[in-house]
Design brief:
alpha+beta, 3-stranded antiparallel sheet, about 20% strand, globular
């Protein structure tokens, strides 16, 4: 993910909103990525640089209890268990079976335009890629090129057997696991904005593998606004976007598991329609029993 860097200060040090004149250039001081955690309140006040140099304050609070996360933890299926007697892991291992519909958002693929030989694999090349040389690569285009069928269980594992010697081609970059980059997060955030109440609070849950703290195998829970979903990339200690995030009404829920190259979204039919109609990302509707493990795609594998 990549965006303008907000500036963080302790909650008690802020009391007013600062605005720049329309033609005034904000000093570079406001682009410093300073993060200070208030030990007393366990909360942060964030300054976002908006249009015409307006600085907007927002509050992100770290919660000391997982109580507001228990509806997911207790109602979804446990890993390694299939109460219905089926095989593998499904969407119900991520969400409770209480939503009307489910959507599988495929994390973006990119093509390195400097790689001419498409048979070259990552094992053949020690040269890393540069972001300036990457262009978006459609899942549908790649599937058509290699004869892979787009099915509900599709993931990048679906391509393993069609690649030479099961090795990933060097020209293909991604998809990233467990993280939604800005080009996807921004349009997704805009869509979800239309499916919450005004000023509705959002919960953000992080599994420890999505953070830099691997010594404490725990979940951490935060509360803030939907606008703050982009702020996590500028906070120390976070490797990915939140593992789960949902509004207080629980009308929808987003899950970006650290081990999956797609994001799952649960919600109402009208939300699924908005997601399906977006031209900013690729995905498809699935059901709660769609498998999501690395052996899920029995059509292509």
């Amino acid at each position: 993910m990549g965006a303008g860097a907000p500036c963080y200060y302790p909650k008690q040090e802020l009391g007013i909103q600062v605005e720049a004149e329309a033609n005034e250039v904000l000093p570079s001081l406001f682009y410093l990525q300073n993060f200070v955690n208030s030990k007393k309140t366990k909360s942060w006040r964030c300054l976002n640089v908006g249009a015409l140099g307006t600085l907007k304050t927002s509050l992100m609070q770290k919660l000391q209890s997982l109580q507001n996360f228990e509806w997911i933890l207790k109602e979804k299926w446990n890993l390694g268990e299939r109460p219905d007697g089926g095989n593998g892991h499904t969407i119900q291992h991520c969400f409770p079976d209480k939503f009307e519909s489910y959507f599988k958002l495929l994390h973006p693929l990119f093509e390195d335009i400097t790689v001419i030989n498409k048979k070259l694999t990552w094992d053949d090349s020690i040269k890393d890629y540069e972001e300036k040389n990457l262009i978006r690569l459609s899942w549908n285009k790649l599937a058509n090129e290699y004869g892979v069928k787009i099915v509900p269980e599709i993931s990048f594992e679906s391509f393993r057997t069609v690649f030479s010697e099961n090795l990933w081609p060097r020209y293909i970059i991604g998809p990233e696991e467990g993280n939604l980059e800005t080009s996807i997060m921004t349009p997704l955030q805009k869509i979800l904005m239309n499916h919450i109440k005004q000023d509705e609070e959002i919960y953000f849950a992080y599994f420890f593998l999505a953070t830099d703290d691997w010594e404490n195998p725990e979940w951490t829970l935060y509360k803030g606004s939907l606008n703050e979903i982009m702020d996590f990339e500028n906070l120390d200690g976070f490797r990915f976007t939140p593992t789960y995030w949902w509004p207080e009404s629980k009308s929808w829920c987003v899950c970006s598991d650290y081990d999956l190259d797609f994001t799952l979204i649960a919600g109402a039919k009208d939300l699924m329609a908005d997601l399906s109609n977006s031209i900013q990302f690729e995905g498809l509707e699935v059901d709660v029993l769609t498998r999501i493990d690395n052996k899920a795609d029995t059509i292509n594998l």
